[in-house]
Amino acid sequence: MQNLHQLEVIILLLAAVLALTTIAEKIRVQYPILLVIGGLALGVIPGLPRVSLNPDLVFLVFLPPILWAAAYFTSLRDFRLNLRPILLLAVGLVLVTTASIAAVARALLPGIGWAEAIALGAIVSPPDAVSATAISRRLRIPRRVVTILEGESLVNDATALVLYRAAVGAAVSGSFLMGHAVLEFFFAAIGGIAIGIGVALLARWSLCATEDTFTHIAITLLSPYIAWVLGESVDASAVLACVAGGIYMRQQFSSAVAPSTRIQAKAIWNLLVFVLNGVIFILIGLELGVLRETLPEGRLSPILLAGALIGLAAIVVRILWVPLGAIVPRWLSPALRARDPMPPWSSIFLISWTGMRGIVTLAAALALPVTTAAGAPFPFRTEIILISFMVILATLVVQGLSLPPLIRLLKLEDDHGLEHEESLAREHAATAALTRLDQLIGEEGILDDQIERLRHQYSRRLEGFSRFGVLRVEGAGDSIESFQRLHHEVLTAERMALIDLRNDGTISDDVLHQLEQELDVAALHLGIGERRAQPKTSIGR
Within a 10 A sphere around the Cβ of 155, how many other Cβ atoms? Predict the structure, then answer.
């Protein structure tokens, strides 16, 4: 019966997620915001079962696939180009925010030690990958701003969790070694990246070793969990393991599996990430209602006030740091100023305002130990958890709800960079297909009139830059198989040409994603969706 009760709770949560996301779409509110508010509302309804989150479950079940997916859809080229501002936010801002929050906490919570205050600062300092991706991608934001926000949210968790572990260790044991903490940071970062790339390499080898679509998809689903568990087992950064693995896998996936696999995998991953995101945000609201009941009488109001002030401090520190991070490096380096001119102030302010907290803050707060090494209760544990939840709520609701009107007010310039890259990629892909057709003249099993029909279609595409349409087979009988083989060759030529453009940095992964999906759909319509790209294999062999 207990298992049945848990199943009923899961079904209720999923139904609430679907209902709230539908409402959010109707009223044009970003769904993470409405889910948190909905969770709070569900938490106060009498008779509903109380949900208590296991932090290990949150870390292991929710984070690996969400981080892997966020990294997978991050353009490596754009990430590299914006590495300086990303690191200034993911490392520099996390350190400054942690120190600032610790100082504010010491002033607001009499008796709290530096170790506990730094732990609180590390918990609330990193903006969340889930929140950034779920909110920023649904709004009209310049591409570079989105890249910086997502890149920051992917990397900052590693910095914050290393600080968190050092602070919690000091609070539990009563001692702190700076040298050990620094070494732990570098080991966690390097070890996590190495594990992520290693898992991605193993996953790619596994994908190439089998032809079964469902096995391919299962490998992609299992990979982030393997990377996470391996990272945790050796005290490396499991976050960076998933980030590195997801980014590396994106570079290999286009040529490792068949078009039908990519289409099915995308659908399954979209559903998985949607469900995980929805459940975790509604659980944030539910958990806050549970924690409220654990406080002694009269303690809730002071802690809520402290949480509001600490949330305000986190927002103010970011607003001050982001402009400094844009101005100071250019002031110190004329070469940087010439290579990368000062971005518009509207973009700078948007980055400084977009700092929503979410799943990592939630899990880190709940993972605080209950007792110290001496057996005493962990100091200020309940207060730290409630304040962390207040910061999540404040940043998600206040900043998240204000983003749409803020973007309209800032009148951000339209970013046509991806459109230009898309036109360039279409032209290059069509040219590659025509070149491959020339190479196939006289190939055994290929009819010349079929080549001419395809050449005519691709030539028209090249002239008009029209969107890719379904190339229908006009022949019949024995010629259908050869025509499918011919299409497979030219579609493969297009795909590999696009991959080459992505690899040399001419186009971003976003353009590759869009055009590759069009090629995959075309392959499915032609009945060749199960065939892998084999650019070096002649069809006559």
Answer: 25
Q: What tens digit of pLDDT does each residue of 188-212 get? A: 889 999 999 999 999 999 998 888 8
Residue 133 tokens, joined: 């991706």
Burial 45-63 (b: 16+ CB within 10 A, else e): eeeeeebebeeeebbbbbb
- Cα distance between residue 330 and residue 439, in whole Å: 51
Res 362: pLDDT: 79
Dist. CA 241–CA 198, nearest whole Å: 9
Q: What is the DSSP string of 184-197?
A: HHHHHHHHHHHHHH
Q: What burial letters (b/e) apply to 497-521, b meaning 16+ CB within 10 Å?
A: bbbebbeeeebbbbbbbebbebbbe
Please tell me the distance from the alpha carbon of residue 244 to that of residue 253, in angstroms, as a whole number. Answer: 14
Instruction: State the angle between helix axes of 94-108 and 143-173 in degrees (0 to 180), rounded to the nearest 10.
Output: 50
Q: Which of 210, 244, 213, 215 is closest to 227 using CA atoms? A: 244
Q: How far apart are CA 487 and CA 254, in angstroms?
A: 18
How far is Cα 259 from Cα 270, in angstroms, rounded to an integer? 17
From residue 51, give the alpha-carbon distance in Å to each of 13, 156, 272, 397, 525: 10, 29, 21, 22, 47
> Using CA atoms, how far apart are residues 341 and 159, in angstroms rounded to an integer?
28
**Contact call for residues 446 and 436 (beta carbons, < 8 A):** no
Displacement of CA 468 from its chain's centroid (Å)? 29
- Local structure of residue 231 (DSSP, 8 states): H
Residue with tokens 């700078």: 348
Tokens 């570098």, residue located: 186
The token pair that represents 195 in the structure block: 């594990």
CA distance 405 to 133: 18
Q: Which of 165, 121, 164, 33 is nearest to 317 (CA)?
A: 121
Comparing C-alpha atoms, which of 413, 423, 416 is closest to residue 506? 423
pTM of the model: 0.76
Tens of pLDDT, residue by residue over 355-369, are 888 778 877 888 888
CB environment 370-381: b (16+ within 10 A), e (fewer)? eeeeeeeebbbb
